[in-house]
Amino acid sequence: MAGAELQAMFDREFRGHIERLREPLVAALRKLIATPLPAGEFEVLSFEMQADWRDFPVYAFAMDRETVNEEYFEPPFKGKVLPRAGPLIPKGSIDQDRYEDSGVATFESGARVLAEWFGECWHAAGGVGFQLPAYISLHDGSRYFDLRDRRWVRAIELGA
């Protein structure tokens, strides 16, 4: 099987597993969006994806725009987005070794699919009306998925 076909197959398989979390994620995001912004308002809402698929790996962080430093607010503006969701991908349900051996970077591909799917959920929850810019990125990544515009941007474009 050609590399592009395997990549597309992995993307479909990965998305098929995370799709079961759409309703709870949209509900959690709807609640976050409806929550009044805390005093001492932050300027950017950043969601960060961790590398661990044994749990839903997305955390919310309120940030300032200038230095992109985390501000310390209470949930839902800080912490796990779906704390009781269980595994993102059930153990053994995707043969990562087979994909990796065939050249598919499963971690990076999974993060891309998850970010773009998260963007769909953000829109379904009403995120387009959220007052501040919101992004999702891989932990320590340099690319961010702009949830309002649903496009990938670099760190220097945050809040632009």
Describe the protein's architecture and organization.
The protein has 160 residues and is of the alpha+beta class. 34% of the residues lie in helices and 18% in strands. It has 4 helices and 6 strands. It has helices at residues 3-18, 22-34, 96-101, 106-124; strands spanning 44-49, 58-63, 78-80, 134-138, 143-146, 151-154. A 6-stranded mixed sheet has the order 3-2-1-4-5-6, with helices on one face. β4 and β5 (143-146) form a beta hairpin. α1 crosses α4. It is globular. It starts with a helix and ends in a 6-residue tail after the last strand.
List key phrases describing it:
160 residues; alpha+beta; six-stranded mixed sheet
Strand-helix topology:
Layout lengths: L2 H16 L3 H13 L9 E6 L8 E6 L14 E3 L15 H6 L4 H19 L9 E5 L4 E4 L4 E4 L6
Parallel strand pairs: 1-4
Antiparallel strand pairs: 1-2, 2-3, 4-5, 5-6
Helix pairs in contact: 1-4, 2-4
Overall 3D shape: globular
The biggest beta sheet reads: 6 strands, mixed
Strand order of the largest sheet: 3-2-1-4-5-6
Taken as a percent bin, the fraction of beta residues is 15-25%
* Number of DSSP strand runs: 6
N-to-C series of helices and strands? HHEEEHHEEE
User: What's the number of helices?
Assistant: 4
SS content category = alpha+beta
Low-confidence spans:
none
Ends apart, CA distance between termini? 41 Å
- Helical content band: 25-40%
Mean pLDDT across the residues is 87
Return Rg in Å: 16 Å
Condensed summary:
With 160 residues, the chain is α+β, with helices and mostly antiparallel strands. It has helices spanning 3-18, 22-34, 96-101, 106-124; strands spanning 44-49, 58-63, 78-80, 134-138, 143-146, 151-154. A six-stranded mixed beta sheet has the order 3-2-1-4-5-6, covered by helices on one side.
